[in-house]
Amino acid sequence: MPALVLLVVFFFVPVLLGFVLSLTNARLTSPQGPQFVGLDNFTRLFSDPLFWKSLRNTVYFGAVVVPLQSGFALVLALLINARIRGINVYRTVYFLPVVTSIVVVSILWTFMYQRDGLVNHMLQAVSFNLIQGTDWLNNPSTAMPAIIVMSIWQAVGFHMVIWLAGLQTIPGDLYEAAELDGASTWQRFKYVTWPGLRATRSFILVTITIAALSLFAQIKIMTNGGPLDSTSTVVFQSVRAGYEQQQTAYASAISLVFFVLVLTVSLVQRFLLRDKD
Amino acid sequence: MSRFMIGRRGTAVLAGVTTAALALSACGVASTSSGGSAGELTLWTHNAGNPAELGVVNQIVADYNASQSKYTVKLQAFPQESYNDAVVAAATAKKLPCVLDADAPTVPNWAYAGYLTPLDLPQDLVSKQLKSTLGNYQGKLYSIGMYDAALGLFARKSALEAAGVRIATVDNPWTAQEFADALAKIKADGKYQYAFDLGTGDSGTEWWTYGYSPFLQSFGGDLIDRNGYKTAGGVLNGDAALKWATWFQGLVKNGYTPAKSSTDAFADFVNGKSAMVWSGIWHSGNLSKLGADGIVMPPPDFGNGPKIGGGSWQWAVSSTCGEKAAAMDYITFSLNKKYLAEMAEKQNVIPATEEAAAMVDGWQPGGAKRFFLDESAKYATIRPPTPGYPFLTTTFAKAAQDIIAGGDPKKILDQAVSDIDADLKANNHYGF
Prior knowledge:
With 277 residues, chain A is mostly helical. Chain A has helices spanning 2-21, 40-46, 49-80, 87-99, 102-112, 118-126, 143-167, 172-180, 185-196, 198-213, 217-222, 234-244, 248-272.
């Protein structure tokens, strides 16, 4: 029963309100109550170049982060799934960024990405001053890649641990058997490890996708959507419209579109990853 | 599993937006009289993080409570970052305090939303104040400030002398051409990394509007057509605005100013990285580190006269206050020249009246700080007093950031105008 109350208050009511509000002209501060305006917000939204740009940026971020982060996390997991001394130190080091607040991480990396920041100094040092680097976050063509690299660095440890948990559920005798049959390392990975990670795989894919699509904190702190909207995302645009610009209804419309987008992507993933037998 | 995940994450955003909606729907709920119990007035202020200013306000409250026995004022201080959110949340819940302070450009928005009541103060008191300390909306006074701030073109005298350009004064500011020459010559001297630092390191919205819209106004443009407040068309994307945008972008393109200043552009100026910096009175204390070499000048005249932003934090009374007369009485008490003078002295701000200026060292005619008062009296332009200001400022700030980032000025300004006009239309022009 308490679960039902929570579900109604924090799920059904907000979804319903968001849906209803997106059909009105509700404002954050206004003497006039909301009026029904039909699909006005949606027509405005679909003709708003910023929305399309934000959508493209969101998809771009997701399309790069999902494969890179899950792949990188798997490599790390395979590396630290070894029984050697001091392995826990490595596990801790890789996991550290995850327990650090994304806000703190974003602020630190903002300094590192400055023109005379750590990143450029390191580039100069390793390339003997051949690479000068740029003002990463203030260059429209490097801002999003810079945020992608940082985001992967921050979150990869979390998925590494999940992969690791998956790896450790695979019985050791399977590997022994494979070895006796003369399977190479690659064959062992392909025929034992990969099939054994089936459930883990779907979980990781879905969680990374959803987290990637709701990109917000890094943007808010590091670039505010700039330069030239090159890092504006759907969630960022929605928060900016709803709070800074006080357009409650318009922000609801954006959120609703985002909801549909995430729902669609997740359903497609579920369909593709379903048990075929 | 995945279905649960979708639901949870997808609605996180919706939940945020609808919290505000839930609060809105609470408007209809009848509530008890707010702003303190009988005989008690609650006062909210934004300056919890500013001990100097808070100290003066505390002093006024204590003095007022001691001066009479009918009412007790109870002060609650908030950090500035969350102050506006607190007020909006309190207003939707009908729990506003009696007396509150407000940043000048948000006053029309709050007056329009019905948060504030017009002030009823003695006329002779109001008429003594600097114009930019008065928050008028639709012909009524809603807020009044104890001080104002001002912008200035801070420079190294030696850099100007080496470049052979004259020092501008309030009565004799630079022309656009003189400014352009100064920039070119200082750059040619090569002694400074930047000739003029705009201070673009602050990514917060309001600095961009407060700091850079006066240049736009000096060129003859504006954020909105103040003649009726019904459109931004022609003023924010007309010829004057385009000239402004091209000039603004040119500062970066010509290498006079960094596209992204460091977080403390004034420190860079003091440390000799830049010859001039665009900043405000709040840094006038740091200017003394340069001794006689540090000077401050008014902005150049780009055709429509030099302009600086006007209007800082001001006092207002909420519409739900049960003791309005007492609230007005308190504000009248707080505007005593003694307190204005103290505020100016402790805070490095412009005192709101001549009487108060006469009481503080440096603010008398000819005094060291007098520049800011004269500059403010002559060139301060308040930000557009319209309830639509929150939208105007976010849109303008984004446009200015995009222009600095190297975007196409015409496209950016046209988009800004179309966004602003769409917002005006969606709000029936905010009652204009």
